[in-house]
Amino acid sequence: MKRRFLALMVILLALLAGCTTPTSTEPRAGDSAIPASPRSTETDSSASSDDLTPLTIGLTYIPDIQFAPFYLADKRGYFTDEGLAVTLRHHGAGESLFGALAAGDEDVVNAGADEMLQARSQGIRVTTFAQMYQTYPAVLITPKASDISSLAELKGKRVGVPGPFGESWFALLAMIEEAGLTQDDLTIEFIGYTIQAALMTEKVDAVIGFSNSDVINFEAAGMEVKTFSIANNPLKSIALGALETTVDKQPDVLNKLNSALSKAMRDIMEDPASAVSDSVDYLPKVTGANKIMLAEQVLTATAKLYGDDPLALDPAAWPEMAEFLRSNGLLQGEVDATAAVRDVSDSAKKND
């Protein structure tokens, strides 16, 4: 399998600079090596009060419309209604995905459930307690006129992916496996976050991107594309996680967080445009009619990933996900998949 070694070295250096292994993420699907923000930003989402429980949530990228459930729950008072004083903390450049959580600077992190399982194998006892995306957003994207009509037809093709990390990489490995291929059957190009340019200039035949953002960006740029998903996907995407000790001791608090976010997610599903209007105060770069319209398109597509039952968990899927990650060399040690996921609604009831 050919690779562009220079691009790989750049990615590896970036990962080392962030003091993290390849488990970094972007909000769209869990995939950035170094976020674009020059620093971490924090937004206090409610005034401190003795009768509110403080909770810091790590949003693993710069402000983005895909974090709208958090913005909306803050703006519309859903966190306060649940007795929570929430701080939304956006991650900054070079910051590892789970570093602040492990250090106790965050109580909850928003990241891929598959990445949480990977982090758990590295010694960070993060436990998934809510699933935000019920549909995996990473897809194969090709020009509409491409002769690729199935994943099996990737054989001999050039496929661009940011690097050997994150959910785009996990998705590509799952696609290769589902198609009955090996990595040597195609040319994998590590292209960083240039997938739009790489595909539009025919540097590659296909890219791994995200259905709720990249596909929309291609269309906005005037390029017609088609997408291919993983039919039997063992992976779970964007979720909420906390350290095991937090889940053990405060399931009621996490359950209240779920209630607030679930309400916000249902609001988004019912009226994405209104949700964008209430989120723009948190999005300094979303100004002007065109950017607001694009944000509405992205949020509408993102809402389709929530499913009919926002934040619902499927713990039975974790062993299969763990086996996939293990068989592809993505886990650094043994991990108990069943202990890596917890339904806090059940735990909270037991503690009542």
What does this structure look like?
The structure is a single chain. The chain is α/β, with parallel strands linked by helices. The chain folds into 2 domains: 35-135 and 236-351, D-Maltodextrin-Binding Protein, domain 2 (3-Layer(aba) Sandwich), CATH 3.40.190.10; 138-228, D-Maltodextrin-Binding Protein, domain 2. The protein is built from 14 helices and 11 strands. Strands 1-3-2-4-11-5 form a 6-stranded mixed sheet. The protein has a 5-stranded mixed sheet with strand order 8-7-9-6-10. Helix 2 (68-75) crosses helix 10 (251-270) and helix 10 packs across helix 11 (272-279).
What is the topology?
Layout: H1 5-17, E1 41-44, E2 53-59, H2 68-75, H3 78-81, E3 84-90, H4 99-103, E4 108-112, H5 113-121, E5 126-131, E6 138-143, E7 158-161, H6 166-178, E8 187-190, H7 195-200, E9 206-210, H8 214-220, E10 225-228, E11 238-243, H9 244-249, H10 251-270, H11 272-279, H12 289-303, H13 318-327, H14 344-351
Parallel strand pairs: 2-3, 2-4, 7-8, 7-9
Antiparallel strand pairs: 1-3, 4-11, 5-11, 6-9, 6-10
Helix pairs in contact: 2-10, 2-11, 10-11, 10-14, 11-12
